[in-house]
Every structure is written in structure tokens, then in C-alpha cells.
Design goal:
Layout lengths: L18 E4 L1 H5 L9 H13 L5 E5 L12 H6 L3 H4 L2 E4 L3 H9 L4 E7 L2 H8 L3 H17 L3 E7 L12 H13 L4 E6 L6 H11 L8 E5 L6 H10 L4 E4 L19 H11 L7 H15 L6 H11 L1
Parallel strand pairs: 1-8, 2-3, 3-4, 4-5, 5-6, 6-7, 7-8
Helix pairs in contact: 2-12, 8-9, 9-10, 11-12
The structure holds 3-hydroxy-3-methylglutaryl-coenzyme A and magnesium ion (MG).
């Protein structure tokens, strides 16, 4: 445990338990400039599962010309047996990606849309309306094949190209994703410009059309606001948090976006609040160390940095 102050958890609407969706092997590595092998990705996913994570986004079946680092996702999936694959998800932009995901034994896919027209065009080369039309048959076919389908909405608190984003647009895209069969929609602060009160206002707007139990939050930490935004979201009843081990990541089509909030920083905060998560904190820190070492990088996570400093002292 990172802290023993569970008794100090404020009374209120904070959930007693959260589900962490670990996105490091996908959102983290898709944008990584360092070279790494398929074996490193496989080892990372294996270690994350060994930490007790029940939801790991392992990769994506997208155009290798658009995101070359995810090109070996099929090979990666084939290294895991069915019981492990039950805990893995992959991003899919179209029917072609879905077919490849099914062939590789995926059990869960995520479709990814946006609340900004320019980001949608830059990321998946179509308008928001076209993307939703594209996702509809992907969702139906995936559900018919027995796969779970998650949805993303990017740029919910700001767009790198358009600036402010209308919460009504976020609510509308989220509602449509739920209606086409996504069991959950993850609200992506793609460029990490969100702040807590804006995050709360957004969640309140989206929960007018999607139950809070079907929402997750996905904060990038570009401006150092991710953890406080998560704290605010927990206060709104959100109980699913996307995060990335060692704070890896960014988005290839969001210039300047930093990594997702570090999973170890989230776990430290949850432990302090007495919120259950089911993750072995020490193993997670070792896993952060493993991937940082493989990429020859220094940690950006505060918890990993503190741990390194402690080890050296
Ligand atoms: P396009 O160029 O409009 O599509 O791209 P296309 O159908 O004309 O195909 C172009 C080429 O890609 C063709 O190959 C296709 O065969 C191939 P070519 O003939 O040129 O050699 N292709 C594919 N290859 C493999 N798998 C596929 C596939 N589909 C087509 N599924 C497309 C449209 C959607 C394919 C492209 O824009 C794309 O792949 N985009 C992916 C972008 C991406 O992965 N972005 C990062 C993930 S989103 C994110 O990070 C945000 C998130 O974290 C939340 C947040 O933080 O907000 C989720
Ligand atoms: Mg992201």
C-alpha cells in the first residue's frame, strides 16, 4: 500500500472501488520515439496483468502508415491465451481493423471518435458524422461476434486545432456511442488542458444522457492537471479511470500532448483515499521501472521519481 491514511477518506460520493483501464501499451507506446521490440510490448502487457490489472489496452488495429508502432498488435495478442485475452482490449477504427482483431482473438475492441471536427479529420480522416456511421457496423458486427465494445470521445476538454469544445457535442457523441452498443464511453482529455471545475461541468452535462456508471475518464497530463481532474471526477461518481504505467504516451495527432496520467500516481492517490483497485502497487512500480529501462527514459510520474530518489538515498 502506498499510504495508510484510508481512515481519513472524506465521506461523500467517492466510490469505494474503481476499475483502472491501463492504456500504456497502446496510448503510451503508440507515440513513443524510442525503438522497442514486439517482445518488449508483450513483456509489458504480461507484467501489467501480473500486477492484477483486469483491463489492459494492448494495441490497435489501425493503418500502420498512420501509427507504425502498433503494427505488430496481432502478433502480440497471439501470445496470450484466452483467459488473459479476456482482460485485453484493442482500438479499431473500421471494419478492416475489426476483422484483424477478431482473427487475432481479441475479446474487446474500442472505437474512437472525437468531439472536434478537425481532430477527427486529422486522427481518422473523416468527419464526426462519418466516423459514427463507420462505427455503427463495426459495433454491430463486434457485438454479434460476442466482443465487448468500448467507445472513446477525444478532445472533450479542448482541441489542439479548435480550442474550446462544446460539452453538448461531447454529450451527443457519447450518447450515440452508447446507443450503438458501447458498454462504456471514455471521455478523453486528449491534450490535457482540462481543469477540475470544467471536468465536473462536462461530466454533469454528459450524465444528462449517459449514466455515470457507463462513463470513464481519460486524462492526459500535459498541464499537470490530470490527478486533480480525476479527484474531481471521482467526486461526481466516476469509477473507471484510464491511466498509463510510468505516464507513457501522447497522441500522434495531438501535437504537444503529454502522456496519460501515470497509473502509479493514480494508485497512490486511491490508496490514500481508501478506494479499492485490486492492483499490486510494488509490482506496478517494478513494471514502470521495466518499461522505462527498456525505453531508456527517466520517469515523468511523481511516484516513480520519488521511489527512484528513495532507492538512491
Ligand atoms: P484512410 O487513409 O482514410 O483510410 O485512413 P483508407 O481506407 O483509405 O486506408 C488507407 C491505408 O490504410 C490503406 O493502405 C488501407 O489498406 C490501410 P495502403 O493502400 O495505403 O497501403 N488501412 C488499414 N490498415 C490496417 N488496419 C486498418 C486499416 N484501415 C485502412 N484497420 C484510418 C483511415 C482510420 C485507417 C486511419 O486514419 C488510421 O488508421 N487512423 C488511426 C489513428 C490512430 O490510431 N490514432 C491514435 C489513437 S486515438 C487516441 O490516441 C486518442 C485516445 O487515446 C483518447 C484520447 O486521448 O482522447 C483514444
Ligand atoms: Mg489518449
Amino acid at each position: 500500500m502506498a499510504s495508510s491514511s484510508a481512515a481519513a477518506r472524506p465521506a461523500g460520493v467517492y466510490p469505494t472501488k474503481v476499475r483502472i483501464v491501463e492504456v500504456g501499451p497502446r496510448d503510451g507506446l503508440q507515440n513513443e520515439s524510442a525503438e522497442f521490440s514486439t517482445q518488449t510490448r508483450i513483456e509489458l502487457v504480461r507484467r501489467l496483468l501480473d500486477c492484477g490489472l483486469k483491463a489492459v489496452e494492448a494495441g490497435s488495429f489501425v493503418s500502420p502508415r498512420w501509427v507504425p508502432k502498433m503494427a505488430d498488435t496481432g502478433i502480440l495478442l497471439e501470445h496470450f491465451d484466452r483467459s488473459d485475452r479476456d482482460h485485453l482490449a484493442v482500438l479499431v477504427p473500421n471494419l478492416r481493423g475489426l476483422e484483424a482483431a477478431i482473427e487475432s482473438g481479441a475479446t474487446e475492441i474500442a472505437v474512437f471518435g472525437a468531439a472536434s471536427e478537425t481532430f477527427s479529420a486529422k486522427n481518422i480522416n473523416c468527419s464526426i458524422a462519418e466516423s459514427l456511421e463507420r462505427f455503427r457496423p463495426v459495433c454491430s458486427r463486434a457485438l454479434a461476434e460476442g466482443l465487448r465494445v468500448r467507445g472513446y470521445v477525444s478532445c472533450v476538454l479542448g482541441c489542439p486545432y479548435e480550442g474550446d469544445v462544446d460539452p453538448d457535442r461531447v454529450a451527443d457523441v457519447s450518447e450515440q456511442l452508447i446507443k450503438m452498443g458501447c458498454y462504456e464511453v471514455s471521455l478523453g482529455d486528449t491534450i490535457g488542458t482540462g481543469t477540475p471545475l470544467k471536468a465536473v461541468a462536462l461530466i454533469r452535462r454528459v450524465t444528462e444522457v449517459v449514466p455515470v456508471t457507463q462513463l470513464a475518464v481519460h486524462f492526459h497530463d500535459t498541464y499537470g492537471q490530470a490527478l486533480v481532474n480525476i479527484f474531481a471526477a471521482l467526486g461526481e461518481g466516476i469509477s473507471v479511470i484510464d491511466s498509463s504505467v510510468a505516464g507513457l504516451g501522447g497522441c500522434p495527432y495531438a501535437p504537444g500532448a503529454a502522456g496519460n496520467v501515470a497509473t502509479e500516481d493514480v494508485i497512490y492517490m486511491l490508496d490514500g483515499m481508501g478506494i479499492q483497485h485490486g492492483i499490486d502497487f510494488d509490482r506496478l512500480l517494478d513494471t514502470a521501472g521495466f518499461i522505462l529501462n527498456a525505453l531508456d527514459k527517466q520517469p515523468v510520474s511523481r511516484v516513480s521519481t520519488a521511489r527512484l530518489a528513495k532507492a538512491k538515498s
